[in-house]
Amino acid sequence: MRTATHRPGPPPALVVAVAALAGGWAAVRLWPVPAPAGRGDAARALAALTAPGARARVVRTVDGDTARVAVRDARGRFLVTVRYLGIDTPESVDPDKPVQCFGPEASHRNHAWATGRLVRLRFDVERVDPYGRLLAALVPDGWKRSLSERLIADGYARVLAIAPNGADAPRLRTLEARARERRAGLWGRCGDALPSGT
User: Fold this and answer.
1) Residue 27 buriedness (CB in 10 A; 0-12 / 13-18 / 19+)
2) Which of 87, 94, 100, 150 could disulfide-pair with 157, CB 3.0 to 4.6 Å?
């Protein structure tokens, strides 16, 4: 019986390097992705998004109340993170906190409603938070309500108004009261014991 002889192949590091180069080229050529935003991009995004008729595209959602949006200006397309104004959803992705009651459901609903949509950003007094995220209500094209209002109304979020912002708080509190009465979403599942996040 003949035994197979072992033939040495290319060194593993070479295979990885070639695969990485090929994969990287394919990603650049086939799926151009906006450059990730740095802290300085918040001011750049504000300049673009406060222009009349300005829109952004939701590229992905982070959790129930945060999204990454693509913004275009004269220098090109780039990404910024937006924290939704006036609401708080249960934690679902924070590595320092456990997953909270109704967190995955809120995250899933935000993803379903927001991802891929063209949105107008509605700002309040403070437009950027200490983490460099934009603070805004996102209103998808064709919607009368913002994502914040929809998430509150259907029981996926609760009101979180932090001064000096709060222009939407009265409307959001009315929607929250109705959701509580109906025991919608987290109000039926989690009650009032849900810890607050940011």
Assistant:
1) exposed
2) 87
